[in-house]
Amino acid sequence: MKSFALPHIQFMTAYAPPLENRSVYQGLRLDFNERTIAPPRAVREALKSFALELYPEYADLSDRIAVYTGVKADQVMVTNGSDQGMDLIFRTFTQPDDVVIIPSPSFAMYEQCAQICGNRIIQPLYVGENLDFPFEEVMQNLTSNVRLVVLCNPNNPTGTPIPLEQIELILRKALETRAVVYVDEAYAEFSGETSVLLLSQYPNLVLTRTFSKAFGIPSLRVGYVVASSELIGDLLKVRGPYDVNMAGACAARAALFAVDEIQAYAKEVMEQAKPMVEQFFREAGVWFCPSRANFLLFRPTEPSREVFKQLEANGILIRPRKGPNIDNTIRLSIGTVAQMEEFIFTYKRLFL
Questions:
Q1: Long-range pairs for 120-124 at CB < 8 Å and ≥24 separation?
Q2: 246 lies in the same domain as 220
Q3: In this structure, are 23 and 67 located in the same domain?
Q4: Model pTM?
Q5: Considering the domain boundaries, does residue 2 fall inside one?
Q6: What is the distance between the alpha carbons of residues 159 and 289, in angstroms, rounded to a whole number?
Q7: How far apart are CA 228 and CA 82, in angstroms?
Q8: Closest CA to 204 of 171, 226, 173
Q9: Are 20 and 141 members of one domain?
Q10: Considering just the CA atoms, what is the radius of gyration of the chain in Å?
Q11: Does residue 100 contact residue 146 with C-beta atoms inside 8 Å?
C-alpha cells in the first residue's frame, strides 16, 4: 500500500532503543547514562500523594525550577522529557529547507528532529585524539542562511565539553545572523557547567535540561526549557497545555527538594567512580575520550559487539557506538564506586 506520510518522512528511519526488557535485566545497566541507583526516597513518596482525577498543573514546578537554575519563572517551560523541548525548539524556530548546524557524532534525536522539519543539516565533525569540539568549522559554517545551531554540552556520546568562551562567540555571531543557538545541558548536574548566565546577554539562546539523568526519574519523562521570556512565550504556543503528566510533575517537585542527595550522587560519580575507571583504562592501555559527563566513550581492543555480548552475558549492559570517528567504541555509564568496581573486575576477567 502506498504510504500516506510526507515524502521526507518516508525516507526516515525510526529511533529504536537498542535493547528491550531492560527493566527486568538482572545486572548492572550501564548503557543509558541513567542514575544507577534509585531516586531519593522523597521522590518515591511524592508519587503516592497526587490527585489522579485532576489535569496537570505546572506553575509551582516552574517556580522551583526557576530558583534551581537562577532565572525567572517566565523563563522556564516544563516539557515531556527534554526530548519534547528539543522537538519544540526545531518546530518553533525552523521550517523546511532552513539550514541547521549539528556537530557530529552527537545525540541522534537532533538529526531526527531536523529531518522531521525538513531542514538541511551541516555536520561538522568532532576530531582529534580527544574528539574535540569543531569550533572553527562551526563558526565558518555559521552564515546568514543558518537558522539553528545545536550544541550538546557536554556532548553525548563523547563527553566532550564546549568551553563557555566558544559558546559565547557562537552566540554572538548567531545573533548577528538571527540564528537561534540551542544548548542541550542534559548532563549539567555532572559537568557543573552551564550557559544560563549568558541568557541575559543573548536573546537567541535556548537551553534544555532533564530530570532523567542525575535526578533519576527517566520513566516519568520530565524536562524543561530555559530561555528568554519571549522565546518561552513562542514555545508555549506550540506545546500542549497538559503534555507533562501529574506523576512526573510531582516527582520533579520532590526531586528539587532533594538536591543535596542528587549532588552527593553526582559527586561520587564524577570525583570517585569515574577517575577510578579512567585509571583502570590507562593501566590497561584502553583508549577513552576525556569526559565531563557521567559516562566514558572507550575503544576496546576486541570488536565492540563481542565485548557487548560477553558483558551482557556476565551481568553488565553497555552501549556499542558507531559513526564518524567513533567506530568500534563503547559508551559506558558511570555509576557508584561499588558498581564500577564490579565493572572493572568483570572486564579484567573477560578481556585482560
A1: 122/146, 123/324
A2: yes
A3: no
A4: 0.95
A5: no
A6: 7
A7: 17
A8: 171
A9: no
A10: 20
A11: yes
